[in-house]
Amino acid sequence: MNKKQKKWLARILAAAVLFVILEICMHAGVFEGRGWLGFLFALVPYLIVGYDVLLKAVRNISHGELFDESFLMMVATIGAFGIGEYPEAVAVMLLYQIGELFQNYATGKSRNSISELMSIAPEYANLFRDGEVEEVDPDEVEIGDTIIIKPGEKVPLDGVVLEGESMLDTAALTGEPVPRAVRPGEAVISGCVNGQGTLKVQTTKAYEDSTVSRILEMVETATEKKTHVENFVTRFAKVYTPFVTICAVALALLPPLFLGGGSEVWISWVRRACIFLVVSCPCALVISVPLGFFGGIGAASRIGVLVKGSNYLEAMSQVTTIVFDKTGTLTKGEFRVTELLPVQAGEKAEEELLELAAYAEYYSNHPIAQSILEAYGRSIDSGRIAHAEEITGSGIHTCIDGEEVLAGNAKLMRENGIDFTMSGSAGTVVYLARGGRFAGTVVISDSIKDGVKEAVCDMKAAGIRKTVMLSGDREKAAQAVAREIGIDEVRAELLPGEKVEELEKLLAEQTGKNKLAFAGDGINDAPALMRSDVGIAMGSMGSDAAIEAADIVLMDDDVGKIASTVRISRKTMGIIRGNIIFALAVKAVILLLGALGYANMWVAIFGDVGVLIICILNAMRLLSRKTGQ
Amino acid sequence: MKKKFKLNEIDCANCALKLEESIKEISGVKDAKVNYMMQKLTVEADEADMDGVVEKVLAACRRLEPDMEVTAI
Given an 8 Å threshold on Cβ–Cβ distance, is B36 in contact with A107? Predict the structure, then answer.
């Protein structure tokens, strides 16, 4: 508790003690026949606990703010005094303040728990300049500067290791407990905690563009994205208070005027009006939304999932279909040559085939080409390659040692009238032809990521109805992967542009409120990430463009976190909706009972403060450690 | 352009909502967001109007939440 809250609490406690004494005296009949004494005695705790509310109310009236809650509290309590219900008047103010203090304390606490969680912001950087080390603000470090990271310190900026080896603890960023080893030449990202070694790092980004500031910015602004549920609450809150206040005025004036009667009748209707005013604040509803989403986004970031807005968490709770990009998302994205099948078998023929493939793919930057060059492992005499042309979606057309060479898929062979043998392998297949004749086949395979099968199974358990895989790969290779990990549908042999088309088709198939999520990592996934209802990107392996385009980022690339995120989102929405329904129902019942004369002031106080506290406690459950597991 | 403010001791979630609504209605303000959880206010306006807008925004803050401390960040 801070100083202000402590003072607040002291006032509440003092007033509470006096209130108890007042109650005892009332029951003992001390004020019997001397009502004014009871009034004076009640006024003391009332003013102790509520003077600031009264001050604010008066200030607000002068500004024309009629539906301000302090003003309404003032009217309700003055009304209670007016009809002789002194203890009730004090209790309303006392409990209203308890509710306010609790709200203040609870939001502060959840704010702190998020900042603790995101305690990744570095306070300083050790700038290395002209042989000297100086401690500076991370802001002041420029791109290309050299910084020193001592053991146990946070990595302040993104960069590349120049000297030193160490283990980096990435838990705050990714939720991954196993530290990552770094060596010279490797990238480090800000927000990690350095292990035992000292590192000399050259920065590659300014502080404001570094991972840590981008994450903090995202988390902080995440609750600003408007959700449907928030729009509903905002619209409701706007009309609720004026409506209830007008009802209260009508209730106090109209029945006694029309029905007539003495002071007894007036007192009865004013009491009903006061009950209306006490429950006129929609605070319990209003606070449930930001507090709930804050908790949900916090729970997600604790497991290394960055949700860029409340609206995406809301959409995630309605996701029934998840579409995956195959390479890099479900598979490791590390291609390796696994089979060499020359037309005439033999070790020498295999080597020649690999050499041919390496020369053909030399100018391509496709991952498949890289893996072939890696398998070849010798230097390439580029003088032997006359010209190379990449045909998107087919392969390469080139000229080596004066002979026409084709390297690519079956389509390329067929189009060029090559008589070739179709491969039955499940991997990615590159067919090669030299001088118009089939030379052989190179099979490249990508391995499935660990735990993907369990992850897909877990998604089903979390309520995902359909999983789809999009791939540029051959039907056969894609089907084999899908079968192994339990994906429902496969759309294979897609050109980069066709992925978005397939996604459009799948989006069109969605009915009602069901939403579709797309999970991908590569640069060419950015359009699909944008187009889907919820775009999920891989954080550490994915490209910057993909992370920028995504709505949810998996910091450690673990597809298994998708199911946890779905669970967190459903729990968040469940709690928020539960709170809204609970608060609305209680208030409606109390308004009804109050109007009919069946509710007293104590019930009304519960309808205001009790509901507020219950809603806050319910929303704060999201911050508990177990959420999402 | 956007300008950010730290709102210290904003009273309640409903007050934050009301503050946001009134700031949005100020002429020259393109968009405004009150982040209750982070206690932050973001105001968007044209650069030329910004100074005048900030003045009106601060006045609105004083009017609706007199106990709130507003500091530019």
Answer: yes
Q: Give the integer Cα–Cα distance in Å for B53 and B32.
A: 11
Q: Containing domain of residue A194, as a range?
A: 125-219
Per-residue pLDDT of chain B (73 residues; tens, 9 = 90+): 888 898 887 877 888 888 898 899 999 899 998 888 888 899 999 988 888 899 999 988 888 887 788 888 7
> Which of these, A279, A332, A296, lies nearest to A628 by C-alpha position?
A296
Most confident stretch, A326-335, A446-455, A539-548: A446-455
For A56, nearest residue in chain B (alpha carbons): B66
Give the strand pairing for A319-325 and A515-520: parallel
CATH of the domain at A183: 2.70.150.10
Check B12 against A287: CB less than 8 A apart.
yes
List active site positions of A. Answer: 325
Q: In chain B, what are the helix, strand and coil shares in percent, each to the nearest 5?
A: 35, 35, 30
pLDDT in tens, A46-76: 999 999 889 888 888 887 777 778 888 898 9
- The answer for residues whose C-beta is within 8 angstroms of residue A335's C-beta and 6 or more apart is A367, A368, A370, A371, A428, A444, A445, A446
Is A348 within 8 Å of chain B by CB? no
Radius of gyration of chain B from its Cα atoms, rounded to whole angstroms: 11
Which residue carries 């019942």 as its tokens? A589
Tokens representing A312 are: 């995406």
| Same domain assignment for residues A508 and A565 | yes
- Domains present along chain B, CATH in parentheses: 2-72 (3.30.70.100)
- Taking an 8 Å cut-off on Cβ atoms, the answer to whether A234 and B13 are in contact is no
**pLDDT averaged over every residue in chain A:** 86
Of B13, B39, B63, nearest to A286 by CB-CB distance is B13
CATH number of the CATH domain containing A414? 3.40.1110.10
pTM above 0.95, yes or no: no
- Is A9 a domain residue? no
Nearest CA-CA partner of A440 in A507, A343, A349: A343
Among residues A430, A447, A464, the one where a domain terminates is A447
Q: How many CB pairs under 8 A join A and B?
A: 60
Looking at residue A542, its pLDDT comes to 59
Same domain, A377 and A358: yes
Give domain status of residue A199, yes or no.
Answer: yes
With respect to residue A492, please indicate whether it lies within any of the assigned structural domains: yes
How far away is chain B from the Cα of A161, in angstroms, using its nearest Cα? 33
Measure CB to CB from residue A282 to each of B14, B37, B64 and give the nearest one. Answer: B14
Q: Would residue A169 count as lying in a domain?
A: yes
Cβ of B33 and A294 within 8 Å?
Answer: no
Q: Which residue of B has its CA nearest to A241?
A: B14
